[in-house]
Amino acid sequence: MEYESYYFVKFQKYPKIVKKASDTAENNLPQRSGGKTRRVTSDSCQNLPKISQQRPRSKTTVGKPGGAKPLHREHPKQELVNHTHKESADFGLSISGINKGSGEENIRPPKGQIIDFRGLLTDAIKGATSELGLNSFDCNPDPSERLLKPLSAFIGVNSEMRELAAVVSRDIYLHNPNIKWNDIIGLDAAKQLVKEAVVYPIRYPQLFTGILSPWKGLLLYGPPGTGKTLLAKAVATECKTTFFNISASTIVSKWRGDSEKLVRVLFELARYHAPSTIFLDELESVMSQRGTAPGGEHEGSLRMKTELLVQMDGLARSEDLVFVLAASNLPWELDCAVLRRLEKRILVDLPSQEARQAMIHHWLPPMSRSCALELRAELEYSLLSRETEGYSGSDIKLVCREAAMRPVRKILYALENQQSESSSLPGIQLDTVTTADFLDVLAHTKPSAKNLTQRYSAWQSEFESV
Ligand code: ADP
């Protein structure tokens, strides 16, 4: 179990541990003499369980077909194996003692000796980090990759919990999404509020006590494509918390009762990996108002919603560093009980004129190299920013992309129609993207959320907290 957990932490999947049926090598195991433990070589390990699953990326041989090499490592305290730290870099684990009846006395530790699997696991992780050139087990050894605590202590013996935990764990960001605050154009007020609610309480906990105790829930709402998910990704990048990126597909299970358990496991996992941020994207799809579904709501769905509310209540009452960040495009569809628990609500509105101008300049600068060729743009940025009123950030990005595509399309057409087979680009000059091009694209691209603006403002005046 420990090894499985370790493997899961490392590769986000469980290994298949199988026992080799053939008994040809059973009697070939070297005998241990005089109580001294000898390192069992890979050749003599043939009757030890093999890990049949191929490792996705590794220098080690564990899992290689025909070449399984479960290296023997015992915990250093037991002085059973005089291993060096270099060996631990293989993070091979001895699975001795599992294989009953095949020379097990040779590989089982002498009576009275305890194998410290937890120490072994920690060592293996340390080994992994030292292989990467790092000296200690750090929560974030490589800024782009996160190493999580093993699930063994969390899972216990319950295999059902293990499966559910595996489902939820798939949505933990192990890789840094690499979105900095500065990558988000405009939205200064929203950025500031998110920092105050999530980032600073973790960075300066001593300031956030008593009446200033940190918020437990924050709702980002507003038209689609305005940067709500981007803000959440910036939180994941900038705070060193375990980030659970949860959408309806994670917690809505077709199996009756599973959704409810998934919600419970999600919060328990978040507490286990604390400090954590649970990001619930498109909250309305899991937390729409109860009892409004046509034909009555499914009992399982009601139970899942209740569980979510109970768990959020639990957070509010606890000292755990677990924070719920939710995003919704349709806040008026949310159940009022969940709104009450998302104490802080922030409108992430359509970009202002200034932000639109910055966006167009960002995506279509006067000179760029977005493809193999140089792309030039001669745009009246301030005029275009006025013309794009009501467009969201993602709409503007789409228009910029389409405008940039125009000169490229001409080249593609020429390349496709030329007689020779060569498709070389040198010497080809792309046309400049002009204001007229941009306006033409704009005429054919409608803003995706303009007619909802008033509804957001009305909802804001009714529900937004200070
Ligand atoms: P939503 O609000 O629906 O969650 P997203 O955050 O997913 O929207 O934004 C969609 C895309 O639009 C982003 O990947 C980004 O490229 C672009 N975008 C939207 N708003 C901004 C912004 N303020 N700054 C930079 N890019 C933005």
From TrEMBL:
List its EC numbers.
Answer: 5.6.1.1
Q: What class of enzyme is it?
A: isomerase
Note the Gene3D superfamilies from the entry: 1.10.8.60, P-loop containing nucleotide triphosphate hydrolases
| One Pfam family named in its UniProt record | AAA_lid_3
Compartments, as annotated in UniProt: Cytoplasm, Cytoskeleton, Spindle pole; Cytoplasm, Cytoskeleton; Cytoplasm; Cytoplasm, Cytoskeleton, Spindle
A molecular function (GO) held by this record is:
microtubule severing ATPase activity
- According to the entry, every stretch annotated as the AAA+ ATPase domain falls at 214-352
Q: Does the keyword Repressor apply?
A: no
Q: What keywords are annotated for this sequence in UniProt?
A: ATP-binding, Cytoplasm, Cytoskeleton, Isomerase, Microtubule, Nucleotide-binding
Q: What ranges does the record give for the region Disordered, renumbered to this chain? A: 25-86
- Principal subcellular localization: cytoplasm
Q: Which PROSITE patterns has this protein been placed in?
A: AAA (PS00674)
Composition bias of kind Basic and acidic residues appears in 71-86
Q: Sorted alphabetically, which InterPro entries does this protein's record hold?
A: AAA+_ATPase, AAA_lid_3, ATPase_AAA_core, ATPase_AAA_CS, Katanin_p60_AL2, MT-severing_AAA_ATPase, P-loop_NTPase
Kindly list the positions annotated as binding ATP. G222, P223, P224, G225, T226, G227, K228, T229
- From the record, give the transmembrane residue ranges: none
Please give the catalytic activity noted in the UniProt record. n ATP + n H2O + a microtubule = n ADP + n phosphate + (n+1) alpha/beta tubulin heterodimers
Please name the GO terms of the biological process aspect recorded for this protein, alphabetically: microtubule severing
Q: Which GO terms describe its cellular component?
A: cytoplasm; microtubule; spindle pole
- Polar residues bias (residue ranges): 42-61
> SUPFAM superfamilies attached here?
P-loop containing nucleoside triphosphate hydrolases
State the family named in the UniProt similarity comment for this chain: Belongs to the AAA ATPase family. Katanin p60 subunit A1 subfamily. A-like 2 sub-subfamily.
Give the protein's function: Severs microtubules in vitro in an ATP-dependent manner. This activity may promote rapid reorganization of cellular microtubule arrays.
Q: What is this protein called?
A: Katanin p60 ATPase-containing subunit A-like 2
State the species of origin.
Lipotes vexillifer
